[in-house]
Amino acid sequence: MKKTLAAVLAAGALLIGGIGSVDAANWYTVGTDSNGITWSIDNDSVKKDDKKAVMDIKAMDYEGYHYIVTEEFNHKKQEVKDLKVTLYDPQGYVVKEEQPNKNSRKVEPGTPAQAVFQLIWGGK
């Protein structure tokens, strides 16, 4: 299952980044993708303006393993990049922290990234 999550994330799906305990966040569920991964945004982590937005996003599988990724969205370029990636077990303990390559990628139609982008700026 861990490999499935990693493949989904590496394929350009939203990654999520966290700070401290997962329980301390104010999560808003965006939806569940075709792989059964539930995507949520930590409302307390959102920092945005007309140019960019930075927030923590969580992707959780049915077993409770989840990534929390801090992502930065670029409004004008319609791109997203991962700033921090952490994998947690179902009890909320850190399994590992990954070093993202921090390269930007386009926000593709039909992806969780697009759903988040539209939540941030609407159809703009």
From TrEMBL:
Q: Which UniProt keywords apply?
A: Signal
Signal peptide span = 1-24
Highest taxon of source: Bacteria
Its recorded name reads Peptidase
Organism of derivation: Veillonella rogosae JCM 15642
